[in-house]
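Q: My labmate handed me this sequence with no annotations at all. I'd like to see what the chain might look like in three dimensions before we decide whether it's worth expressing. Could you predict it?
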Amino acid sequence: MSVLVTGGAGYIGSHTVVELLNLGKNVVIVDNFYNSDKEVLKRIEQITGKRPKFYQEDVTDKAALINIFEQETIEAVIHFAGYKAVGESVQKPVEYYHNNLMSTIVLVEVMKMFGVKKLVFSSSATVYGMHHEVPFVENMSTSATNPYGYTKVMCEQILKDVSVSDNEWSIVLLRYFNPIGAHESGLIGEDPSGIPNNLMPYISQVAVGKLEHVNVFGNDYDTPDGTGVRDYIHIVDLAKGHVKALEKANTTKGTLIYNLGSGQGTSVLELIHTFMKVTKQDVPYIIGERRSGDIATCYADATRAWNDMQWKTEKTLEDMCRDTWRWQSQNPKGYAK
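A: Here is what I predict for the chain of 337 residues:
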């Protein structure tokens, strides 16, 4: 029996595959390399000594997905596949709605055909919108400020409705906060295509000389230093959260929702200065205007994940910076040769 990981060659997917393989799980990856690289598969094998079964397919392709389920004995699915850039989603809303909704709908249809009813879904803290007090708790109402966020809200609702319609389903919705860092080996990490959308890869690319400076969007927020505060979580802690969620899906029916975050807020300037202190690298930055749609403070209440799954973050902000720099300095051009 195998765990199917859609988008398993991506940043979060690849780290989760490593954790699954290290536990002796059989893993099947389906990925179309839209935002990933085939080199990842070799790196996963270097780390674990095992090469997962791989299919280069798009999850919106129902016939291709049916073929995979016919070839493999799938017992559960972790669904990462999807477009994920907030800014790009504003420019390409139709593409985002089509890809993210259809990949989820097609996947659920095929799972149902084969009687596979255990699913862990990659959601996001963006579903909390802009109007809640921190920390964010799972029972808060959901909304969004951009098409990417709305795709997560909609997919969550689709999956909740699926489990209501058939009580044999076990669905775990994981709302991530801000994953950063890399595997401690330095072999796999975040490799954004083009200019990074997220802060940490931007910082590390400035440090390695690919970019000139970090743009800090606003320093007049109601926060300790005026810059935006976010909940950063080490990618390996996040990956281990998926393993725990899979275990939970094996023992519980219905839909379960968990925040995966540290429960602590870190400002933009605090992250930059911690990175410089840990790595001894200079990271120049320029303070600019606020970015539309950004909120001042965002961090998790992760109590439920601890109470239900005995999961919590273990790695520090210094670990996140150190591991990011190891990955970036060893792979200055990412996975590119």
